[in-house]
Amino acid sequence: MGTLIAIGAAIAVLTGIGAGVGIGIATGKATEAIARQPEAEGKISKALLLGAALAEATAIYGFVIGLLIIIMLG
Amino acid sequence: MEELNCKTVFTIPVFGGIPVAESIVVTWIIMAVLVLLSVILVRNLKVENVGRKQLLLETGISFLYDFFYGILGEKGKRYITYLMTVVLYIGIANIIGLCGFKSPTKDLNVTVALAVMSIVLIEYSGIHAKGSKKWLKSFAEPIAIVAPINVLELFIRPLSLSMRLFGNVLGSFVVMELLKIVMPILLPIPFSIYFDIFDGFIQAYVFVFLTALFMKEKME
Fold first, then answer.
1. Per-residue pLDDT tens digits for B135-175
2. Domain tally for chain A?
3. Backbone φ/ψ region at B73: left (φ over 0), alpha (ψ -120 to 50), beta
4. What is the CATH number of the domain that holds A6?
5. Fewer Cβ atoms within 10 Å of its own Cβ: the N or the C terminal residue of chain A?
6. Rounded to two decimals, what is the model's pTM?
């Protein structure tokens, strides 16, 4: 049972893949945009920060679910 | 694992005992600090020959005010003070872990309460701006078939708001505790700057930013 719980929590944490890819793409695009228009850096980095925080939330959900699995079942 | 749970500090002996959690006591401390600061800082404010203290205060407040004004516009001016209070509270609550207290936002009950307050205010702003008939009609926009999804949004928004704040604070706390086990000296310092200070402020910013954004959307 303990092994199964650990595997379940590990699968839940796999949501981090999506967040990592998403933040990577967003940062890449932001870098391109800054290279094209260096004067708009302030606005771009503000939007990037917000987007990164929102994309990170998916990974956080996975973490919360994993923690809940361990606390509730373990 | 023991640190994750929110302990009951004491019990009020009325109605069969009301348990008072640790997060509430820390919230009282934050409230006391904020009230004291707002009493001390607003004394001796002048129109001319402003001091350095007043200049700093005005810069900070007008930065926050302009930020929310830029999102909400003229119609949503009345909600700015609430949003400023919430961002001050969450910001301090997230970094109070550095002072040895337990962050109130690490307790799911606190973040859920904040998110419920947000969603109530979001819907209230819609009702106030458009009237209840138009507010009800706004659920069936752009076409009537999406109405269930719009109703579902009422529950998804506070859920995601509260879970985002709670998960981020708890997650950074767990990472910091693990780092302290790996190497108690020097190593946690740069991570603490990111996880405790930067991430805490970013999450406070994101919380109120999203609340203001939803409010703006409801008021249109």
1. 888 888 778 888 888 888 888 889 888 988 888 888 888 88
2. 1
3. left
4. 1.20.20.10
5. N
6. 0.84
